[in-house]
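Deliverable D2.4 — example input (structure tokens):
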């Protein structure tokens, strides 16, 4: 049961991240659409549009503007149709424009004051019909405009509506439907369906080359024009948008080919091919408007300037022209990603320029699959990596991931015109990171505080932080581990303590124990306990340390060095100079939280621990500050050691080889290395009972350095001369005291 609870605790954190990832995968796949994410995606789309706007329109596409100046000169709109006819004549005959698209509809017959007066006169005086009818025919503006339309490539505009004809009847005429080339009927696709229309007067539409709708049934829920359909269906026939009609007019009215992938069971409308120009669309024939800039990016030319012919001919010659209005009361305003108030006629201008320059952003059919793979990759990566990191590293990694997602997305946007979802992966990353941080703070902080409280007095803060990364790997239960233990003791401490008052003794001990503890912590050691002037520490727990022996030897050498450095400072304070002995042993030890129900302590036990204590006690007998066992020397081979003896300590039957660490092999000078080698040679002669050879070498060493170690062996040589140990002597010296 405890193992199950432990497993459950370890699974809760990744399960939360996986749940967030699954939510976003369901959204991306379309199984569960989340409106909030969709809204964020729209905002992200608008942001990228505005960051990458060219801000320069196509000079080949212009807008003939019914502006305030034109209304002041010509009069209130709608104008007599003969004025419109004259405008078309000037544009096509005098300025030689390529084509024109009407962003207005002529749904009502031309009604002028003079014509109406003649009709009333005719009602009162029917006998005047032979005279008045020819005059009225000459004044028929619709007829005049129809005659001009028949001679040009102008595209009329009309409106398709979702309102039922039963409520509002259709008016006017529609142009001829689109000529489509498709291997699969377009009825297979959810192309917007209209139920009524507002078309142009029959005489006008029948004489025009074609027409195009200017309404947009694909406006997003927030009212923003991001997509526009290229086609709509009405009573089984398909009609083109105004922008598509204008392009077809320029190209000589080619048929429209549907670019379809898949078969009849799952057809996907990917684009339209119009005279070699490809328009990427979705299944509704919707295209993303390729905005070039804010209002006024495309040049506006006033109608009155055209009438006066003050516009340079080269500006309009060969141009694609749209007729629209900017005058108050006539202005057709839309909400777009680039501006909240944007002329509808300029939306068509952007579409026409986009087709000409093939500058459409697109979402290929494989976008959903790519998004699912990205969400899966990021979700798994963050879920199983962040749980192992500290909060600071979590923030660093998440920042890198967010930056990478943004950079990759913008790369696809700019270089490949690919509208890849941005809000979805970014929001998922933020939520997973937030969850990981919250879990770490709210759920794991309690366990981490307990670890810090328990081990903070034993180990340095850096190790506590490492333990906090994965608290579940730390156990307080007893276990057997290969570790290294250290014992240190101040020599002659009893005499020293008797010469100081309690306050001075306390200050002395603090001044001694603080730097010693700092050294142990610096080399990843754990303080077991202070025993008066003695220190017990170990390496390899609570955090496992594959180099515990090396760290322990390095710490012990540093302790001896620091103790020598403290001598002058202690002398200044009137304190005696302290000398320490340090013993190290490596082996299997029992480690864990041990004690009674009244008091517990995290400590180590075992024969290997006891041997470490014995070695510390032997240091003064050999005149060395530091002594290690053979197992420690073998586990830290990067150090040069001087073998001191082969001894049998009190309480152990098996002999133990003891060594003095000299320093790192790479840092030892040749003279010192030769001296250690010479001693090892003397020791070899001694153990072979070649006492004369050993004595001569030891005398030579002693003459160069008066070391207690040499005196110890010279005394033993004399002792064994007087009382030989026998031919079967194994070279072991037995110590009878601790």
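Example output (designed residues):
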């Amino acid at each position: 049961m405890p193992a199950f609870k432990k497993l459950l605790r370890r699974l809760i954190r990744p399960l939360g991240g996986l749940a967030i990832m699954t939510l976003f995968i369901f959204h991306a796949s379309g199984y569960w659409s989340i409106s909030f994410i969709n809204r964020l995606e729209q905002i992200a789309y608008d942001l990228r549009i505005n960051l990458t706007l060219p801000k320069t329109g196509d000079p080949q596409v212009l807008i003939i503007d019914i502006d305030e100046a034109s209304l002041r000169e010509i009069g209130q709109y709608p104008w007599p149709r003969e004025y419109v006819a004259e405008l078309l004549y000037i544009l096509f005959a005098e300025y030689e424009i390529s084509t024109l698209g009407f962003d207005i509809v002529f749904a009502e017959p031309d009604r002028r004051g003079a014509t109406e007066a003649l009709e009333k006169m005719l009602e009162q005086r029917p006998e005047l019909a032979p005279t008045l009818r020819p005059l009225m025919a000459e004044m028929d503006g619709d007829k005049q405009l129809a005659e001009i339309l028949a001679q040009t490539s102008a595209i009329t505009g009309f409106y398709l509506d979702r309102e039922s004809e039963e409520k509002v009847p259709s008016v006017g005429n529609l142009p001829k439907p689109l000529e489509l080339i498709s291997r699969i009927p377009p009825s297979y696709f959810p192309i917007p369906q209209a139920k009524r229309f507002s078309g142009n007067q029959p005489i006008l539409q029948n004489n025009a080359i074609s027409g195009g709708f200017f309404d947009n049934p694909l406006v997003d829920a927030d009212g923003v024009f991001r997509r526009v359909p290229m086609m709509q269906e009405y009573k089984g026939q398909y009609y083109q948008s105004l922008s598509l009609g204008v392009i077809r007019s320029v190209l000589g009215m080619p048929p429209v080919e549907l670019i379809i992938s898949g078969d009849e069971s799952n057809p996907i409308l990917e684009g339209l091919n119009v005279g070699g120009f490809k328009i990427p669309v979705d299944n509704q024939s919707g295209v993303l408007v390729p905005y070039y800039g804010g209002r006024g990016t495309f040049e506006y030319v006033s109608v009155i300037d055209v009438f006066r012919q003050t516009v340079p001919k080269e500006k309009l010659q060969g141009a694609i022209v749209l007729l629209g209005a900017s005058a108050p009361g006539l202005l057709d305003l839309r909400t777009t990603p680039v501006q909240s108030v944007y002329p509808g006629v300029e939306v068509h201008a952007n579409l026409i320029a986009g087709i000409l320059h093939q500058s459409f952003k697109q979402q290929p059919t494989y976008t959903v699959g790519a998004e699912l793979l990205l969400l899966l990759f990021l979700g798994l990566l963050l879920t199983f990596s962040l749980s192992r990191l500290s909060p600071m590293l979590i923030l660093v990694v998440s920042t890198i991931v967010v930056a990478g997602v943004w950079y990759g997305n913008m790369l696809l946007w700019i270089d490949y015109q690919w509208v890849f979802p941005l809000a979805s992966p970014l929001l998922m990353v933020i939520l997973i990171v937030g969850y990981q941080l919250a879990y770490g703070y709210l759920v794991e902080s309690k366990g981490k505080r307990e670890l810090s409280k328990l081990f903070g007095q034993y180990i340095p803060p850096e190790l506590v932080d490492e333990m906090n990364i994965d608290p579940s790997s730390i156990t307080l239960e007893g276990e057997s581990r290969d570790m290294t233990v250290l014992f240190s003791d101040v020599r002659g401490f009893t005499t020293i303590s008797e010469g100081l008052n309690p306050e001075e003794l306390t200050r002395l001990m603090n001044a001694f124990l603080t730097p010693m503890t700092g050294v142990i912590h610096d080399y990843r050691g754990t303080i077991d306990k202070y025993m008066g002037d003695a220190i017990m520490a170990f390496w390899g727990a609570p955090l496992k340390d594959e180099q515990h022996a090396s760290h322990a030897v390095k710490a012990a050498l540093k302790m001896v060095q620091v103790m020598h450095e403290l001598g002058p400072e202690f002398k200044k304070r009137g304190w005696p100079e302290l000398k320490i002995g340090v013993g190290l042993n490596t082996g299997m030890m029992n480690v864990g939280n041990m004690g009674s129900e009244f008091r517990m302590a995290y400590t180590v036990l075992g024969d290997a621990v006891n041997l470490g204590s014995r070695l510390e006690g032997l240091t003064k007998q050999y005149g060395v500050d530091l002594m290690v066992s053979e197992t420690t020397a073998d586990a830290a081979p990067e150090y040069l050691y001087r073998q001191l003896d082969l001894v049998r300590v009190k309480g152990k039957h098996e002999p133990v080889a003891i060594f003095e660490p000299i320093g790192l092999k790479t840092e030892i000078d040749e003279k010192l290395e030769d001296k250690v080698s010479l001693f090892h040679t003397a020791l070899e002669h001694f153990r072979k009972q070649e006492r004369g050879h050993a004595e001569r070498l030891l005398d030579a060493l002693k003459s160069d350095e008066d070391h207690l170690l040499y005196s110890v062996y010279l005394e033993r040589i004399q002792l064994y001369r007087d009382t030989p140990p026998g031919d079967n002597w194994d070279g072991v010296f037995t110590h009878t005291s601790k």
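The longest helix spans residues 423-455.
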